[in-house]
């Protein structure tokens, strides 16, 4: 499994950004795709996850309403739409994948990781 995250950049507070994660190497039916982030000096934290089959979504409470995860089955791509960005959203964002084990909020449950894409939000 290969995951390639892209779409990061420098934006201003209040702007929107969409991250993409291109997945390849297998069919992803039965998998869960997640987004995590790690800010400088902080631990990695869960952002959102989506079941590849069925599309059910899960969010960290602090990001629900501003962030939206989706997937494109045809293109094997997962997206993270981020709206009303704040300086505290500055982090490296990683996409990850697991064969659905029902535990989505911890990075240790994910077996495959992309390389990360940097999002910087200026005030």
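Sequence proposed for the structure above (123 residues):
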């Amino acid at each position: 499994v290969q995951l390639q995250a892209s779409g990061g950049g420098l934006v201003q507070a209040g702007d929107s950004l969409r991250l993409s994660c291109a997945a390849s190497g297998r069919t992803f039916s039965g998998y869960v795709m997640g987004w995590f982030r790690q800010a400088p000096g902080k631990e990695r934290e869960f952002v959102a996850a989506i079941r590849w089959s069925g599309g059910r979504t899960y969010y960290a409470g602090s990001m629900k309403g501003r962030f939206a995860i989706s997937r494109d089955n045809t293109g094997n791509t997962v997206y993270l739409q981020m709206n009303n960005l704040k300086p505290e959203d500055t982090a490296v964002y990683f996409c990850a994948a697991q064969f659905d084990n029902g535990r989505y909020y911890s990075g240790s449950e994910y077996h495959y990781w992309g390389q990360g894409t940097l999002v910087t939000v200026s005030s």
